[in-house]
Amino acid sequence: MLEERVAIDARDSVRFVETARERAKNDVGLAWLAVALYSAFAVASVALGGGGGQGKFFWVLAAPIVALAAFGWAFVDGRERGVEAPRLALIGIPFGLLTLAFALGALSWYMQLPVLAQFGPPIVVAAGYIAIGVQRRLSVMVLVGFVVLVVAATFALLSGGGDLLQAGLGLAYVFALLLARVGWRVARRKPS
Amino acid sequence: VTHPAAELNDTIHQRVRLGILAVLKETRRADFAYLRDELHLTDGNLSQHLSVLEDGGYVEISKTIEGKKVRTWVSATKAGRSALASELRSLRALLRQTDGAAD
Asked: By the CB < 8 Å criterion, does B56 face chain A?
């Protein structure tokens, strides 16, 4: 009888902790989305590099601006709600993934392996996000990983399609991410 | 063999304190109002639990002035994070044991 009571109490505590963790994770999720956006832009610019020319230049300029805006938005949004994301992880993870990705890209160019140089960096970043998403049980991160792959591949395939087409695709991508965030927030409001 | 219940930490075993540490584990820091609302507590109740956790060295409390208001921020210490992990391990071991006994 006592054993049963202890088990009920333990199960209740574990469930309570899991729920609290999930909610907190969702509340710092916007900051993760911002850094994922930054990484996606960065690898997309590498994929564009396969075609060379103005497109790459455009994205290299746009990426930091969009990343800063997204991160600033995430920071303000988090503070308004009373919660701050772990900064070390937010800076360290994308920095580590991008360093790895660009190192692979540079090495591949040096070794004259253009296909690996074009597709290697997005694959590294996407695999990193998928792994983090699975480990932290953040489905949005897994989704972002797959989106990075699809976007980079599409950009690479359309690299001969002109800057306007590429810019349009980029805007569509940002819009899709924002939409995902809105959906996430609506889901967050549902009573648990 | 020690019973898993003997491994439970008396200070953080209380459900609300576990909840506070669980929220703080996922964040850099959270403010007082966020914790109060997320865990459905009153100001007094949360203050009491935070004092216990602070005395035990599991959380750190800091205050910032924003505009004309004082904002209280709470973060988990290293001891707090590891105590939460160890407590969850003990609770799961306890559940495995009781579920095994029931089979």
From this structure: no
Cα separation, B20 vs B75, in Å, equals 10
Tokens at A111, concatenated: 């070794």
Count CB-CB contacts under 10 A for residue A157.
12
User: Is the distance from CB of A43 to CB of A121 less than 8 angstroms?
Assistant: yes
Q: Is B52 on the interface with A (CB under 8 A)?
A: no
A6 touching chain B per CB within 8 A: yes
The Cα angle at residue A61 between residues A59 and A67, in degrees rounded to 5: 85
CA atoms of B8 and B94, how far apart (whole Å): 10
CB distance B54 to B60 below 8 Å: yes
CB contact at 8 A, A121 and A105: yes
Beta-bridged to residue B59, according to DSSP, are: B76
- For A107-133, the pLDDT digits (tens) are 877 888 877 777 777 777 778 878 877
Task: Identify the residue among B21, B28, B78 best suited for mutation to test binding to A, counting A beta carbons within 10 A and taking the highest.
Answer: B28
Structure pTM? Answer: 0.69
CA-based nearest residue to B58, from B73, B77, B72 = B77
A50 residue type, one letter: G
